[in-house]
Amino acid sequence: MLPGLRPNWYQIPCSLIVNKSMFPNSSNLGRPPFHPKYQQPNNFFKLPLNLSPTLSHQQIIDAQFSCQNVDSLPRTLLSGNLSPIPAQSLSYGNGSPIQTSTSPVFRGRKRLSNEQNVPLDIKRQRFHSPHHESTVANQTVPLSDERRYSAPGSVTLPLLHSYYVPDLVRSVPPFREAPFSEPREITLPVAKDELSQQVLNVFQVCQQRTCDLKKKELCRSQLQREIQLIFPQSRLFLVGSSLNGFGTRSSDGDLCLVVKEEPVNQKTEARYILSLVQKHFCTRLSGYIERPQLIPAKVPIVKFRDKVSCVEFDLNVNNIVGIRNTFLLRTYAYLESRVRPLVLVVKKWASHHEINDASRGTLNSYSLVLMVLHYLQTLPEPILPSLQKNYPESFSSSMQLHLVHQAPFTIPPYLSKNRSALGDLLLGFLKYYATEFDWSSQMISVREAKALPRPDGVEWRNKFICVEEPFDGTNTARAVHEKQKFDMIKDEFLKSWHRLKSKRDLNSILPFKSYYAE
């Protein structure tokens, strides 16, 4: 028996009582709570909060379970560290209650306090009690998997079963396996000519390393623990080029904070949530988070720099489509061995010629990736299919978020009869958009694997480049709204195609020094 615990408390069956206010996002559901007599008061904050036990969380774990260390870092990735967090409730945006917590992360040290204990009936409730309030948002939802994995260096715990209470805002369960492990062993294509070899050289020099990704993941997992002090049931996802297979060593990190499964109003709710996150970064994390700025764009973000990894991050709220398209693109990336080298070289080429910056009215990287995929789909002998048409169940917009990462592991490689070399594909890509694609009447669609007639909606009018987002059907190239910028993009495609065609030397359109600095 643990010292300091009264027998009558320790012997209460775990299945009857859930101390969810003490551990609102913990896998230790069902454990008996501590009597107020044995709890330390806390005056760190002025508002009365639910309090933590005298014994550390780890002491309880060690006493009640036989634990073992997590084998390796990848097994813990994107699962989050579910620390014991006191919680309170506030309203934001449209008045929906959101559970929050302002308590510091508990590191096993005793907290100083002079605050009065919160009444026991508030701190402890049985899930099956008729008096239990189920109207508070962000209540804990038991996960379906058998174990929950925490951050690197922590322990694995068996999940105790508890009663399920429907809640207004359901949490997003963690991924069951490491989603950034490569879906399959993929061998780079053999270069049979000098231009193809140059393309491979650029890819090998500039591609994102595993160590680069692990730095971003470590930052993500630490930030998730901190953000869960404000939104205990939230999940923080690494998205974008860092995870979709097309990242470079200089790629920024993109993060998506999911606070609830339902959409949020980006103008009101998302901005308010991000303002809380930014304030938390400034007040608690100034030691390793630099320059957190709230950018009130159409999809608002908090931009910041991680001092440890020196990586720039953009954090948005509930941009769910970004999570889905990350794993769609990741599946394409590993479907055929020529896809990743070609995409990376196109991104470097566009960046060098200053047509890869949406903030300046040119193409964003996502649009460039979709343009390459579309080109490979529309060849006389396609190199890529439409994954959404061939495997609709794996890329459904209604698929639960904690399952979307499984698609890259379940889709078999695509065997194309087209054996074109990388150099020829790069030339063909430039030629297609310089001379063949009809910008004025066509829309690029990876979802349909073909060029479609332009829609007649408001979003598509007066837009010079139309690239369909595969899930929500919006225009990913809407930033190109000035004719001058559009003409500059078209001109660069045409000039680069002529130059590369005549010289067959990648340095003629992408100088070695422009990318080797990475």
Topology:
Elements: H1 7-10, H2 57-64, E1 88-92, E2 96-100, H3 120-123, E3 147-148, E4 157-158, H4 194-206, H5 210-227, E5 235-239, E6 253-258, H6 269-284, E7 289-295, E8 301-306, E9 311-317, H7 320-333, H8 339-352, H9 365-377, H10 387-390, H11 407-410, H12 422-436, E10 442-445, E11 450-453, H13 483-503, H14 512-516
Parallel strand pairs: 6-9
Antiparallel strand pairs: 1-2, 3-4, 5-6, 7-8, 8-9, 10-11
Helix pairs in contact: 4-8, 8-9, 12-13
Give the count of helical stretches.
Answer: 14
Examine the secondary-structure arrangement and name the CATH architecture of the domain at 194-508. Answer: Orthogonal Bundle
Question: Main sheet: which strands, in order across?
Answer: 5-6-9-8-7
Strand coverage percent: 5-15%
The mean pLDDT is 74
H-E string: HHEEHEEHHEEHEEEHHHHHHEEHH
- What Rg do the Cα atoms give? 26 Å
